[in-house]
Amino acid sequence: MGKIFLCVCLFTLMVTSYANEEPDETKLQTKHIVKKTKCLSKHCIAASNRIFEYIDDKVDPCEDFNEFACGGFNKNTIIPDDKSRWDVFSILTKEIEYHGRRLMEEPIDDKNDFESYKKAKTFFKACMDEDKQNELGLEPFREILAKAGGWPVVEGDKWDGKDFNIWDQSIKLHELGYSSDFFAEAFIYSDAKNNTHRVLYFDQANLGLSKEYWDKGLDEPEVKAYFQYMVDAAVLLGAEETQAKVELEKVRDFEMRLANISAAKSERRNKTKLYNPTTLGEFPSDAGFPDSWTDYVQKIFNFGDDKLDIEDSERVIIYDPNFYKNLSSVLQSTDKRTLANYAAWRMASSTMKYLTSEARDIRQKYSKALTGIDQQAPKWKRCISGVGFNSYSKSNFIYAVSSMYAKRIFDSRAKKEVVGMTKYLRKAFSKLLDELTWMDDETKIEARKKLENMRQFIGYPDEFLDQEKVDAIYDKVEMVENDYLGNVLKLSKYFTKYYALQLREAVDPDDWREHRYVALVNAFYNPSLNNFEFPAGILQGTFFDPNVPKYLNYGGIGFIIGHEITHGFDDQGRQRDSTGSLVDWWKPETNKNYKDRAQCVIWQYGNFTVKQLDMKVNGINTQGENIADNGGLKEAYLAYDMWEKENGVEAGLPGHSYSPKQLFWIAAAQNWCAVYRDEKLKNQVLTGQHSPNEFRIKGPLRNNEDFARDFKCAPGSKMNPEKKCNVW
Predict the structure, then answer these.
(1) Euclidean distance between CA atoms 550 and 641, whole angstroms
(2) Residue 329 falls within a domain, yes or no?
(3) Of 629, 650, 694, 710, catalytic
(4) Is the domain of 337 the same as that of 418?
C-alpha cells in the first residue's frame, strides 16, 4: 500500500478522479492530457492493489507473462484445505457461497418467500442435520439396496441372482431415483440435424472412474484408490473384507473392460461421426441386450399416468455404434454376480455423501487420491452446492436459488453494461472475418450469418422474478426436514420425469428454463442453439466492475465474451450452422485451411510441458478451448481498441506506470491466475477440455502481435516467438 500512497501524493496536482469528475471537452480533445490522469476512485484503488498483489514485476513480461502477471498470486496463495485448486473463479465462488448461506439460513418468510424458496430451505435444513443422518445410519440405504435386489458381496450366499438381468436392473435403478446409465446411456436432447425438436439418444456407459485413468493400467494410483473405495464401501455395509476384495476385483476388471470399449475424448470431437440415426425397432438386439429396445425404453420412461408411448418407429440417434458392437461380448463374458455387484457398487458410490459421517470419510479418502483435497468442505458449503448455488445439477433447486440470487443479490447495472460490451465484441469478430485471407467469400457469408443469429443471455431471464413460473416447477415435489437422502432421491426422480417428458417436444431457444444457471461463476456457449450466456454470478469482481476503467472489464469479462463467441467457430462449434443444426457450411479449400490452422494450435499446445507434473498438455482434447482463448482474446483487444477510439484514452491506475493497453493484457492474464494440487492438475491434464491455466495465458499471448507490440517484446523472445498459431 505504501507504493500506492506515494504515487497518489506525487501526482495529486495533475490527476483527474475517474469516478467523481466528468472530463470536460478540452480534456477529451487532448488525449495526451488524459494519459497523465489516474483514476482515484475507491474501486480503482482496489483494482490497482489487486494487480500489485497478483503481479511479480521482477519478471520480464516478454519471458514469462504468466509469472509476471500471476507470480505474486502463485507465491502467496495457500490452497484451502477443502479445495483442489485456487483461482479467481474460486474467489468469486466463495462470495456466491456466502450469499447462498445467508439466504438459506434465513427463517422461512411465509409472506415474502416463494413456495419454491421454502422447499429449498427445507432441503438445506435436512442436509445440514448431520446428527439426524448419523442417527438414521446406513439403514435407509440398505432398504433401497434391498428394493434393487441387494448387493451380492454384502449378502454373500443369501443373494439369489438366477433371474438377474442388467436391463431390468437399470429400470429398477431409474424407478428408485438413480442413474440408469451404468451399462449404457439413454437421454433426451435436441436433434443435432433438426434442432427444432428433442429426440432420444443412446451413448456409451458413464464410468465410475474416467477412461483416461483406466487406460494407464491397474497400477495407476487412482485406479488402486478407486478399488479400495469399492472395498471400503462394501465393508461399511457389512461385507467381509477378504471376500470383498476377491469379488470386487472382478468388478474392477469389468469396469476396465467397459472403459476399453469406450471411445476416448479425442475420438468424440467430430459430431458428424457421432450422429447415427436409426429407430428402436431397427437397433440390434444382440446377445446380452434387451429382447426389445422399445420395451426397455418404454419401461425406462414409465412415469405412471405421465408415461410416454414408445413404439418401434421411435427415432434414436446412436453416438457410438462401436460401443454397442463390443458391449454384447463384454456382457456375455461377465457372470451375473459381477454385473449385480457393479450395479450395486455404482449405487453405493453415488449415495455415500448423503449417509453418515463415516461414509463421507470413506468417500473423502478416495476423493483425496483424485483431487489432493485433505479434508471435506464444511457442511454448509456442501449443502449450499447441494441446494443449487454454484451447481451444475439439474436435479436440485437450481431454478429456485437462481431466482433468489436474481431477486436479492444481483446488481442489475451489470447487465446493461455487459450488453453494451457484447456489441463491440461482435463488431470485433466481424472485423476479423473481413480480414481473413484463408476463408472464401461464400463461407464468410455463412460465418457472418452465424454471428448475426447468435443469441445472448446476460445475467438472468426476467421469468426468474415471476413467482408463479418458478413455483410451478416444484409444485409436485415436497421436502421433509428429517430425510436428506429421501429428499435427494425425490428430486432426482421428479426431474428425471420432468426432462424425459420433453421427448418430441419443440425446442424453444428462448425458453427461460433453458438458461437455468444464475448463481454460478461461469459462462457458456450452446452449440445446438447457437447462443452464449453469462450468468449473474460471473458479472462481478475481477471479471467485471462497472466502476473501473473499461480496459479492465474488456480484459476481464470481455475476454470471456470473446471466448464464448469464438466457441461458435471452434473445431466443434463450426460443425453447426447459424441455427445450431449439424450442417457442413464450409467450402472444401477453406475447410482444409481451417484444419491446417487448428493443427498448428494442437501442435503448439501439445508441446507445452506442465513442469509441476512433467506432463504434456493434450493438444487434441483442449483444441476447442485453446482456439476459443486465442480468438476471444484477440476480439476483446480489438473491441476495446474500437471503444477507445470512440471515447478517448482512459485514466491509468494509481501506483502503476502501465498504459491502458498494457493494463488490458494484465487484466486478461489475471483471469487465469491459479495454483493446483498435483492430483487435481493431473486430472485436468488427463481428462479436461481446458489447458492448465498458465497456458491459457502463455498460449494466446504468444500468438498475439498486439501484445508483443504493447509490451515491446523482441522477435524471437519467449512471449513473441517467430512461429505463431492463429485460427481466428
Answers:
(1) 10
(2) yes
(3) 629
(4) no
Rounded Cα distance, 619 and 562, in Å: 21
The total domain count for the chain is 2
Pairing type for strands 315-318 and 194-203 reads parallel
Residues 198 and 338 in one domain: yes
Q: What does residue 303 show for φ and ψ, rounded to 5 degrees?
A: -115, 40
CATH at 291: 1.10.1380.10
CA proximity to 593, closest of 702, 439, 382, 696? 439
- Which CATH number does the domain housing residue 716 bear? 3.40.390.10
What is the three-class DSSP state of 456?
strand
Is residue 342 a contact partner of residue 251, using CB atoms and an 8 Å limit? yes
Domain limits at 40?
A: 1-76+411-454+530-723
Is residue 420 located within the same domain as residue 275? no
284 exposed, middle or buried (CB, 10 Å; 0-12, 13-18, 19+)? exposed
Pairing of β 531-535 and β 315-318:
unpaired
Question: Domain check: are 348 and 424 in the same one?
Answer: no
Instruction: Name the stretches of the chain with pLDDT < 50.
Output: 1-35
155, 564, 679, 710: the catalytic one is: 564
Question: Hey, what's the cell of 150?
Answer: 441387494
- Clarify whether 505 is annotated catalytic: no
Supply angle C-alpha 82, 83, 89, rounded to 5: 135
- The β-bridge relationship of strands 524-526 and 185-191 is unpaired
d(CA 504, CA 487) in angstroms, rounded, equals: 29
Residue 472 has a CB neighbour count (10 Å cut-off) of 13
Question: Between vectors from CA 181 to CA 575 and to CA 281, what angle results, nearest 5°?
Answer: 75
* Per-residue model confidence as pLDDT tens digits over 285-301: 888 899 999 999 999 88
Determine whether 629 is an active site residue: yes
Same domain (yes/no): 539, 642: yes
Together in a domain, 696 and 589 = yes
pLDDT score of 8: 30
Of 401, 382, 398, the residue nearest 113 (C-alpha): 401
Residue 40 domain-assigned (yes or no): yes
> Hey, what amino acid is at 707?
F
Answer yes or no: is 288 within a domain. yes
Domain boundary among 323, 339, 354: 354
> What is residue 173's predicted lDDT score, i.e. its pLDDT?
94
Calpha distance 724→721 (Å, rounded): 7
